[in-house]
Amino acid sequence: MTADTAQRSKRPLFRNRDFTLLWGGAAFTTLGAQVTILVYPLLVLWAGGTASSAGLVTGAALLPYLLVQLPAGAIADRYDRRRLMIISDAGCLVATTSVMLAVFLDRVWLPHLMLAAFVQGSLAIFYDLAERSAVRNLVEEHQVPAALSQNEARHRAMMMLGQPLGGFLLSVTRWVPFLFTALAHLASLLMLLAIRKKFQGERAAKSESGLWADMAEGVAWLWRQTFLRNVMILVAISNLVFEGMSLALMVVIRDSGGSPTTIGVVVAIGGVGGLLGAMTSIWWRRRISLPALIVAGLAAWAACVPPLALITNPVLLGVVFAACGYIGGVFNVAGGVYMVGVAPDHILSRTISVAMLIGAGASFLGAAGFGFALDTAGVGRTVLVMTVLMGCLALVALILPSVRAAARTREGGRLSAEDAAALD
């Protein structure tokens, strides 16, 4: 190791120009996405639409997790990840601008909102997969866990800021949230254009197999990881519940006379919990195994669902969502470190895409299904169903042999002193 290389390896992440630009660009993109992901259903609800219509718009934004994940992962491994992120930002800018003009001209049409939400959701997947996979190529190897933790903290912070900002901007003028998101994507584009380093290794650009073969390789690799596969299935079902919780929150606040800004504040409090969870995930991993973390987290999530049918106070609802966010922040960092640690770089984007497909591919069903349930059965009965479903997930995680067995592996057990030192 040369003196220059040794000096770079000791350089803190904030001194890494390319990683800082990547981090900042992704922050703008995430902020814009968080603004519009809340505004889409609120735009429908506060215009006199039903929970079912709001669920359709939300479902359109989530449907790409089912349809786009696999090809996006293969494309992110095959082609230049930086260029892919630039194209994604540009496409999102066009989509949000079209909605802004439609709202400004008072020509809002539900199918247009659904199409724009679907396009944004699709391009966000390409961006996210490329960004996640690029990190290990822009930082030193020992800094990867810390970089992933910072990325998760960034995501949670943007959730904390973006969704209340979206609610506030919608309350002021309906088209302004979409203008804000377009400008955020423009800022991200400029930062991406300034990055010098390559976003992937040379072998990723030399793939000679077909796109279908690339996708199949990623599916086959993850499917052989029994622990990962089973955990992602549990996460998939829990995500259905979270979509229902988000819609239930909107209905509860609306029916109690609240405003879009109130919903944004509640979600922001949840973002604070997620940020704290991301920051303390490594602390938990030093003390308990990954399987124990999963079982305890699912059980705690089950306890967070019933209050939605019992309380309307925004502060108390914020506490509930903060608890949910905290657990999610812990999960995401722990899972991300595990994934990057076990997956080879040349299939990393595909591996992440398969995991996200399993984990979030059916989320649109949660938005559409629970939106219909809220209209027909009401908040109380819908919340009861969600509580039972989440409780069953914790029980299944507790008895699954593959989950229990992972506690005895190096990656799934408690962090060793050596691993913990590397993360500090």
TrEMBL record:
Where does the UniProt annotation locate this protein? Cell membrane
This chain's protein is named Major facilitator superfamily (MFS) profile domain-containing protein
Q: Which organism is it from?
A: [Actinomadura] parvosata subsp. kistnae
Q: Which InterPro entries does the entry link to? A: MFS, MFS_dom, MFS_trans_sf
From which domain of life does this come? Bacteria
Q: Which UniProt keywords apply?
A: Cell membrane, Membrane, Transmembrane, Transmembrane helix
GO terms for cellular component? plasma membrane
GO MF, one annotated term: transmembrane transporter activity
- This protein's major location comes to membrane
Write down a Pfam family by its short name.
MFS_1
Q: How does it sit in the membrane?
A: Multi-pass membrane protein
Query: Which intervals hold domain Major facilitator superfamily (MFS) profile?
Result: 18-409
List where the protein spans the membrane.
21-47, 53-72, 84-105, 175-195, 231-253, 259-278, 290-309, 315-340, 352-373, 379-400
